[in-house]
Amino acid sequence: QEELFKKLIAHCKEYGFIFPSSEIYDGLSAVYDYGQNGVELKNNIKRYWWDSMVKLNENIVGLDSAIFMHPEIWKASGHVGAFNDPLIDNKDSKKRYRADVLIEDHMAKIEDKIEKEVEKARKRFGETFDEAMFRQTNPRVVENLEKIEDIRKRMVQTLESGDLEGVRQLIVDLEIVCPVSGSRNWTEVRQFNLMFETKVGSVSEDANTIYLRPETAQGIFVNFLNVQKTGRMKLPFGIAQIGKAFRNEIVARQFIFRMREFEQMEMQFFLRPGEEMKWYEYWKEARLRWHKALGTNPAKYRYHNHDKLAHYANAACDIEFEFPFGFKEVEGIHSRTDFDLSNHTKFSGKKLQYFDPETNENYIPFVVETSIGVDRMFLLIMASAYTEEKVDDGERIVLRIPPALAPVKVAVFPLIKKDGLPELARTILNDIKLDFNCHYDEKDTIGKRYRRHDAIGTPYCITVDHQSLEDGMVTIRDRDTMVQERIPIDRIRAIVEEKVSY
Ligand code: ATP
Question: Where does 408-500 sit in CATH, by number?
Answer without folding.
Answer: 3.40.50.800
